[in-house]
Amino acid sequence: MNESISSALLVALNIVVMEKIDDGLFKIIGNIPNWFLGFYPDAALQREGLSR
Questions:
Q1: How far is it, in rounded angstroms, from Cα 30 to Cα 7?
Q2: Can you tell me whether residue 48 is helix, strand or coil?
Q3: Residue 14's Cα: distance from chain center in Å?
Q4: How do residues 23-35 score in pLDDT, each as one tens digit?
Q5: How large is the average pLDDT for residues 4-25?
Q6: Cβ atoms of residues 33 and 44 within 8 Å
Q7: Model pTM?
Q8: What whole-number distance in Å separates Cα of residue 25 and Cα of residue 12?
């Protein structure tokens, strides 16, 4: 599946996908739904970074 189709699917499903990095850190992949920002407001700031 190409990246544009994958991104569109994640947006349509309104889900958050994270990749587990070393030492229990997670990186957000793709779109960040508005509902998720209610739980974790710093997600938009850390989009390219890592979060615990």
A1: 6
A2: coil
A3: 11
A4: 888 888 878 888 8
A5: 81
A6: no
A7: 0.58
A8: 26
Farthest-apart Cα atoms in the chain, separation: 31
Structure letter (DSSP) for residue 3: H
Query: Which residue type is seen at 52?
Result: R
For residue 22, list its beta bridge partners. none
Q: Which residues contact 16 (CB under 8 A, 6 or more apart)?
A: 28, 32, 33, 36
Secondary structure (3-state) at 15: coil
44 with 36: CB under 8 angstroms?
no
User: pLDDT tens-digit profile of 42-51?
Assistant: 887 765 555 5
What residue ranges do the domains of the chain occupy? 3-43
Residues in the chain: 52
